[in-house]
Amino acid sequence: MINKLMTKLEKLRHKLNQHIKKLSKLRYLQKSKTFNFLLSLTVGVIVTTLGITTDWATTETPTLTYKTSWTSNSLDNTSLLVQKNTETPKLTYKTSWIGNTIGSGNLRIQNNIEAMYVSPDGTVYTNSHWDEAGMEAAIYKDGKVIGAIGDTHGWSRGGGIAVTANSKYIYLAITQGSKGKTDEDYPPEGTSWHCVRRYDLSGKPAPFPEGRGWDKSMLITSTKSEVTGLATVGSELYVSDFAANRIRVYDTDTMKQIRSFTFANPGAITVDPQKNLWIIQSKNGSKPAKILHYSQSGKQLPEQIADIVEPTAIAIDRQGKLLVAENGPRQQMLIYDIKDQPVQTGSFGSKGGIYTGVAGEVGDLKLYGLTGVGADASGNIYINSNGFNKSGTDLRKFSPSGKLIWRSLGLIFVDNADADPKTDGVDLFTKQEHYLMDYSKPAGKQWTYKAYTLNPFKYPQDPRLHTSPDGTFVRRIQGKPFLFLTDMYNSFLQIYRFNPDKDGKIAIPAGMFVGSNGADKPFLAGNWPPNQPQKGEWIWRDRNGNGKFENNEYDTSKDYPYIGGWWVDSKGDVWKALRTEDGIRHYPLQGIDAKGNPIYNYGSMEKQTTPSIFNDLRRIEYFPETDTMYLSGFTVDHTAFGDDTGVAGSEIARFDNWSKGNRTPKWRVVIPYDTTGKREVSTAAISVAGDRVFAVTVKTAEVYVYNAKTGAQVQQLKPGPEVGSESGWIDIPYGIRAFRRSNGEYLVFVEENWKGKVIMYRLAG
After folding, report:
1. Fewest CB atoms within 10 Å of the CB: 46, 83, 358, 594?
2. What CA dihedral angle connects 569, 574, 579 and 582, to 10 degrees?
3. Per-position DSSP letters for 624-681, written without gaps between them
4. What is the CA radius of gyration of the chain?
5. What are residue 375's DSSP bridge partners?
6. 577 burial via Cβ count (<10 Å: 0-12, 13-18, 19+)
7. For the segment 151-200, what is each residue's pLDDT rounded down to a tens digit?
8. Separation of alpha carbons 695 and 705, rounded Å
9. pLDDT tens-digit profile of 592-603?
């Protein structure tokens, strides 16, 4: 009903607009009784119509009516009517989220867990270098976050990779950097303190007489490298000082150093029932890692474990057995009897981890990227999987028999989702994860973690291991699924294919575009990718299908170095917007090769001129089915305040009959943009789906919804109570992706980096 009325009103508005164009003088408009009558009638009908409650509105999100006004927006010497909302529109949408077990509040699952300690009563203490919302370290119990270990974020401060606790205190590895001139106790400029910071068991800092830092709770152990291991034995605290190749021993109450002893490349520490130490000796060049046995006094004991590849964490269970997180190809927790010479007596988890069976498919006992192991006094087992290249938190508790008791997920960090068009949005993908959706379930319960799509053992040159992609496009090209990933700076476009028969759910590296470097040097610094062209830009295609960057697989060129945005259309063609007058590049798909890789090259590339209304093009979305182009950027009429990088610009414009050469916009709409230099208001990203154009602002994360046919704003979305009515800033150029389902419903995915999730809006069609 509402859609039919809106269609009729749109036709009426169009006729009214045509009538106004025929009127030549503003004073005639002001005196025209016919005009005033029509305008009043139109507004009255619209207000009445939009007051209608639809069945789609929910009790969770109350329906509110709103008023509209019409103002004249003069663009290209043409007077267009642009709708502006003056009150909150009807909330015919629902808010939900994916990727985090907890959708709102300060105590949600953190971005990563890089170390953990499990107390006898099953309390889990964690640590990590960084969490966007400031919860680098947390306290978990019974599958819930019961507290944050405080003051680990900001003021040049961050967490670390070691944590332990006793019956009185938590001991946390942190790094404290300089803060400039201050009366408080901070490191001098150019220096960082690598510390052990002491907390009470509620997570509040616990100062001590000779403590350092602004609150006197920090013990400085090094200015050269971070603390890599922590453990307590009675009244003694053992600390791995990696740079000094020493284990330092402190009194747990006074925090004064008692003694130290030499240990090469010390890592994680645990304590056996005899109160002796087991310490990971990290690999050093060609020397493999080991686990060595030491007395409290620092005497090396003869027992050691050398049959491991990449031990990342260790703990002792209630039976006195040593638990080892083996992060090599086995992806298991190994169990050793250490009463005499260590003997492996068992393992926990599927051998091969998440890559066994259907590779990448999630399972209760399939581990991946282990960073923490532990056990409580009841024999329950705790394991954290962090993925690879810090993919996200997957913390699980198992019974002694191996049954999964609970699982806490925090899988999203600087990321967004997109829908598989073939499955009508039932399958969603982020840069490393695959989710299965059930839209009949309540908010936050619709998603199931289906697969982890990265395999570092089979494809060690996967660009996701060496870069930081953050925006996902899911495309079906000739019926086959592909992922395309960009990054925060639009500097590349990565391409992934799937081969379920050989690789299960894994996304296989297939291709990559990079831009030109302004200087004559390789575009990507460092040793990756191998065989990279030494200057210019390039397209890589995995010609032999092994996922490696090889010498004969690059196509090279030279172009303008400043990229505004990327796009992949429904046919598989790639588009690139450059921030210059001659700034549109079109790479038509040249087919799919025998290995399943899409083919692109510079020989078939088309250069297209940027429409004259733009002086700085930022985003591009082309739809071949209708030959429609949507562009955003800064325009001659609404210029940027300085070099306002990263944002979508000041206007969105639609162009029909693009391939026929039309460069006159059907409509233009001004979107929120910075006019003061403070960037309090600016648009981060846009997305077009069906009959709607969506744009999201940087700091307020508000979604502006426009009619794709007219450019008129029709709605504005804000995070609902389901996610605490809050969101962090939008940090990435594709921080919004929209998809229209076959039933007309719109799914709108918005990056929510702050609290580690993707917000999902559901709008009636």
Report:
1. 594
2. -100
3. TTTTEEEEEEEESSS--SS--TTS--SEEEEEESGGGT--S-SEEEE----SSSS-SS
4. 29
5. 381
6. buried
7. 999 999 999 999 999 999 999 999 999 998 888 999 999 999 999 999 99
8. 7
9. 999 999 999 999
- Judged by DSSP in three states, 22 sits in helix
Tell me how far apart the alpha carbons of residues 757 and 105 are, in angstroms, rounded to a whole number: 12
Cβ neighbour number for residue 35 with a 10 Å cutoff: 16
**Spatial separation of the C-alpha atoms in residues 262 and 301, rounded to whole Å:** 14
**Do 275 and 258 form a contact (C-beta atoms < 8 A)?**
no
Q: Is the pLDDT of residue 347 over 60?
A: yes
Sheet containing strand 115-118, edge to edge, reads: 115-118, 124-127, 138-141, 144-148
d(C-alpha 565, C-alpha 614), whole Å: 14
Residue 647's pLDDT is: 97
pLDDT of residue 221: 98
Tokens of 168: 């009185």
Token representation of residue 9: 């009103």
d(CA 700, CA 493): 28
Give the span between the Cα atoms of 682 and 698, in whole angstroms. 6
pTM of the model as a whole: 0.88
Query: In angstroms, how far is CA 75 from the centroid of its own chain?
Result: 37
CB atoms < 10 A from the CB of 694, how many? Answer: 25
Count Cβ neighbours within 10 Å for each residue of 447-464 and write b for 16 or more, e otherwise. bebbbbbbbbebbebbbb
How many whole angstroms from its chain centre is CA 36? 51
Q: Could you give the angle at the alpha carbon of 394 between the alpha carbons of 129 and 322, nearest 5°?
A: 85
For 459-495, the pLDDT digits (tens) are: 999 999 999 999 899 999 999 999 999 999 999 999 9
Other residues' Cβ atoms within 10 Å of the Cβ of residue 705: 22
Is the Cβ–Cβ distance between 679 and 685 less than 8 Å? no
Does position 707 have pLDDT exceeding 60, yes or no? yes
pLDDT for residue 131: 96
Of 142, 136, 197, the closest CA to residue 164 belongs to 197
SS (H, E, C) 341-370: CCEEEEEECCCCHHHCCCCCECCCCCCCCE
Cα 84 to Cα 67, 103, 640, 747: the distances in Å are 9, 32, 23, 23
DSSP string of 478-516? TTEEEEEEEETT--EEEEEEE-HHHHTTPEEEEEEEE--
Residue type, 362: V
- Given a contact cutoff of 8 angstroms between Cβ atoms, the answer to whether 748 and 738 are in contact is yes
Q: Choose among 236, 256, 235: nearest CA to 298.
A: 236
pLDDT, tens only, 355-400: 999 999 999 999 999 999 999 999 999 999 999 998 999 999 999 9
Distance between start and end Cα atoms, the chain: 11
Counting every residue, how long is the chain?
765
Mean local confidence (pLDDT), 698-710: 98
d(CA 652, CA 641): 17
Determine the Cα–Cα distance for residues 273 and 576; give it in Å rounded to an integer: 62
Is 48 strand, coil or helix? helix
Tell me the backbone φ, ψ of residue 422, rounded to 5 degrees: -70, -35
Strands 507-514 and 492-498: antiparallel
Please, are residues 549 and 539 in contact by the beta-carbon 8 Å criterion? no
Q: How does residue 23 score in pLDDT terms, banded at 50, 70 and 90? A: very low
Q: What is the pLDDT of residue 765?
A: 85
Helix (H) or strand (E) segment spanning residue 526? none
Q: How far apart are CA 633 and CA 635, in angstroms?
A: 6
Q: What is the DSSP string of 169-200?
A: EEEEEEEE---SS-SS--PPTT--EEEEEEEE
